[in-house]
Amino acid sequence: MGAMTNASFESNLLYDSTGVENGVFVLDNSTCSGREVMMHWNSRRWFALTLFILSWWIDRSAASPVKDSVYELHLYHTHTRERLDIAYRRGAVYDPGALERINQYLRDYRTGDVHEFDPRVFDLLHALVASVGHPDAQIQIVCGYRTPRTNEYLRMHGHRVARRSLHMQGMAIDIRVPGVPAAELRDAALALHRGGVGYYADSSFVHIDTGRVRRW
């Protein structure tokens, strides 16, 4: 048997069997030369990289708001009986005046206090009604902002209210959507995976917020 050269020895180390080893494709040295193997490996790397970039681009395009898309909400407050039809965002840009009007609309109706809301709450409402097939649905507001005083009063009088409720931070809202069962609305909110979701079957409403993802 002839002496093994350094090149053939190194080739055997890398390509002495067929399969995958340590993340490297390993091919039978009897069927491919070292150059052919490396060309094959490089082509697979470029193919995988191309797929990754394409997938990233598609995901980014899907997640990015379409330029000039108008985001609207149609609201009805069950306590004040006020209605509000408003476009609050165009593309990725929020309308400050519209946000101010929604904040006023979602005030603590018991005290009149107004608090700035997290705009993601409005995006969540917009996405939620779209996900149940009613993008232009009127959303019934059961509870928007609550002052700490109101929150404590409700908690002390037997209402199921959290001591540190996100309603006090303008990050939560309780809603109904006419024509959509509360259980279906809950499931749709859970599927969005954007924050907390509470289901109150006895009162037929759903709580959604932009806090950490959780459910009750």
What's the short story on this structure?
By secondary structure, this protein is an alpha+beta fold.
List keywords for this structure.
two-stranded antiparallel sheet; 6 helices; single chain; Muramoyl-pentapeptide Carboxypeptidase, domain 2; 8-stranded mixed β-sheet; 216 residues; disordered N terminus; 2 domains; 22% strand; alpha+beta
Structurally, the number of domains stands at 2
Estimated share of beta-strand residues: 15-25%
Cα-based radius of gyration, to the nearest Å = 28 Å
Distance between the termini: 75 Å
Average pLDDT, rounded to a whole number, is 82
Number of strands: 10
Order of helices and strands: HEEHEEEHHEHEHEEE
What would you call the shape?
globular
Question: Quick one: biggest sheet?
Answer: 8 strands, mixed
What's the architecture of the largest domain in CATH terms? 2-Layer Sandwich
Q: What oligomeric state best describes the polypeptide chains here?
A: single chain
The CATH top-level class label of the largest domain: Alpha Beta
Instruction: Give me the CATH fold name of the largest domain.
Output: Muramoyl-pentapeptide Carboxypeptidase, domain 2
Note poorly predicted spans. Answer: 1-32
Structure description:
There is one protein chain. Helix 4 crosses helix 6. The protein has two domains: about 55 residues, no CATH class; about 150 residues, Muramoyl-pentapeptide Carboxypeptidase, domain 2 (2-Layer Sandwich), CATH 3.30.1380. The protein has about 220 residues and is of the alpha+beta class. The longest helix is centred in the N-terminal third of the chain and has 30 residues. The chain is about 40% helix and about 20% strand. The strands form two sheets. An eight-stranded mixed sheet has the order 5-4-3-6-7-9-8-10. A two-stranded antiparallel ribbon has the order 1-2. It contains six helices and ten strands.
